[in-house]
Structures are given as C-alpha cells and as structure tokens.
Amino acid sequence: MAKRPAFADWLDDTNDVTRMFLAAGQIPGLINLAGGLPDPQLYPARALADLAHAALTETPQDALNYAPIEGYGALRDALATRYETDKLKLTRENVLITSGGIQGLELIGKVLLNEGGAIATQTPTYLGALDAWRPRRPTYRPMRPDANDFDPAVALRGCQFGYTVPNFSNPTGKLVPTNVRAALVEAAQSTGTWLVEDDPYGALYYDETPLPRMIELAGDGAPYDGPVIYLGSLSKELAPGLRIGWVIAAPEMIAKLTLAKQGSDMSTSGLSQVLTLRTFETGLDARVLPDILTLYAARRDALCAAMETHLTPWFDWEKPVGGMFVWAVARNPDFNTDDLLQAALRAKTCVSPSSVFDPLGEDRRAIRINFTLNSEPQLAEGIRRLAVACQEVDLR
Ligand code: PMP
C-alpha cells in the first residue's frame, strides 16, 4: 500500500470551520464580512501601469531576470532608510525582501522552529501564521498582553520565539500598549528569545498617533543587532497582488532567512520589486494612503453604528482606532460562534468565528468583522443579516 504522505497529517489538523469559511465566498449574494481584504477600488492601477511600463522599458533586465535572493540592493536601502531613527541604525544587511509578509512567517518557522517546538503567541492570533508553522506541529503558549498578570519574561522563557501583531492585531483590531511593547522587548533581551513583530497594519492609524514599533524600542544607537524580527508588507497600504513584504532584523538572522528563502522561491518577483522601488521613489505610496485612511475610517464608523443598532443584545466590542477589523465578544459565555457562522451563511452573510484564531482551537465566544471590503450600505445590511442569525442561534 502507498505510504501516506507526510503532509497529510498536518493537513488533517486544519480546522473544518476554516475550510467552510474559505469556501463561503462562493455563495451568490453573500455579504462577506469574514475576509481581510482591502477594497480593490483603492489600488492605484493606472499609476502602477505607468510605472510598470517604465520598469519594463528602462530596466528590463532588473524586472525580468532572477533577482538576488535577499532582494534588490536599492530597495533594501530604501526600506532601511524608511525605518531608521536616531536609535535604530539600519543598513541593507538588516533587510530581506520577501514574497508578502506571509513568507517572512514561513521562513522564520523554517529557521527557528524544531518539530514540536514552543511558540509564545499573542492570542487570539493570525490564522496565516498558524498555517505557516503547522508543518512543524508547534506547541503554543498563549500570550494575552491585556491580562493584568501578563509577564512577558515568563511567557517567552523556553520558547523558540514569541509572536505578536502589536498594531491592530488580526483578529482583534487592538493595539498592544507601549509599556507592554517595551516589556516584551526587555524580556526578549533578558531571556535571549527572538521576538517576531508582524506589522502589516502599522500604516492604518485613523485617529491616533502611531505607537513606537518594538524594533525601534530595541534599537540602541549602534548598528541594529537586536532580538526583534520585524515584518512589513505592502499588501494593506498599496496592493496585495504585488506580493511584496520585508523582514528587518539582525544581519545574522537575515543571513539565515536568506538561505531559507533560496529553497523556497529563489527570489521575490523582480518586476514587483522594481515597481515597489519606483513607487517609493515617486511617492505613490504616500499619495494613496490618505484616501485609504479616509475611506476605511468612514466604513469603520458605519460598521460600528450598524452594530450598535442590531448587535447589542448579543455582543460587546470596542471601536478600533485603526486596522481592518472589529472584534466582538458574546455577552453570554455559552453563545457558540461556530454555530453562528452556519446560521449567518443561511442569512447570506459571513463573519470569522474565534475558533480559527485560537492556537488551541477552543475559543467559541467571539467573531471578527471586517470593514474595509464592503460599502457602508453593504456593511449595514450584512450586520442586519447577522442579527437575524444571532436570533436563530439564541432560540436553540
Ligand atoms: N500578518 C498578518 C497579521 C496579516 O493579517 C497578514 C495578511 N492578512 C499577513 C501577515 C500577510 O500578508 P501579506 O502576505 O499579504 O503581506
């Protein structure tokens, strides 16, 4: 009999609810509040077409050849400059260009995780990170930075690394406060543990001044060599189809991740890299950001107003000050949001249930609602449908 392939075991671990809500996009007329997608009308397609034309005619060899594994030097320099502060001193040796932020997560798993190794992860956490690390079958130590008794040093000790999304976490949309960021950095330094700062939403602050990045807090004025591994991405601030992400880390870590990347995709698309560099050089990214912030802030307000009208009997939530999601927690601890998802699909809407974001798969009490993809009237209608589904679940 044919031997069962190794990957079959970890595919079996994928939660059924994950599969169900990934398939939900196919239902006609469904208002999908479950995903995490930007609004495609905001992609600056025409400006990118002009830049792509210039890239292909002026520097076709850079755009069409294999690129260096670690990325084009000029793009790495531009990113080093973008993140440099008085305390955080960076050169291109601190930068690796990746194929989306998700590749950074996958490479970190390849480099740092032993089979069954422990990860201290902010909980609930990003589903894609759980997917990226699933082949190593890690064990998870949940970190809840907003708990009163949270002790970062206890959380990190003995783990292969710690993982956080400090700006507008996916799924909760919340910020990790500055004092907790500083405590996490200090704990990473004192325990000698790597700390992954995953930051695809860092540009999406709508109402407040950005909090300091953990990698900034780890800078000491000397060439950066600290324990924070920072992951950035163009997906939420420009366009996910470019598949451009980056890692900023100690040169020793960048060298290891580069070796891992060689066996993954050889290099990130040269065309996308050249386009990204031209985007930075022409300031296109800075020009599109204000429109993104204005549209998403208005949608967040519309979503929260609709939730106020329809969902208060069932859920509590906080209005987020940025990002793409509202996290709503059921008032009744026995309310089951996996069941709610089934009822919501019958009512032709869809939200993400908390079970898919819990590394231990146990949380059934919350939902993640996205506000960036749909128009304000669609958001209101989606929430009205969700209230119908809540009623159905409640009557059981
Ligand atoms: N990290 C987090 C927390 C995310 O939410 C996402 C995208 N949903 C990513 C990483 C990866 O994004 P990308 O690969 O498109 O850069």
TrEMBL record:
Biological processes per GO annotation: alpha-amino acid metabolic process
Keywords: Aminotransferase, Pyridoxal phosphate, Transferase
Entry-linked SUPFAM superfamilies: PLP-dependent transferases
Cofactor (UniProt): pyridoxal 5'-phosphate
Keyword set includes Transport: no
Domain Aminotransferase class I/classII large: 50-385
GO molecular function, one term: transaminase activity
Keyword Cell membrane: no
Pfam families registered for this protein in UniProt: Aminotran_1_2
InterPro entries: Aminotransferase_I/II_large, Class-I_PLP-dep_aminotransf, PyrdxlP-dep_Trfase, PyrdxlP-dep_Trfase_major, PyrdxlP-dep_Trfase_small
Protein name as catalogued: 2-aminoadipate transaminase
Organism, as annotated: Litoreibacter ponti
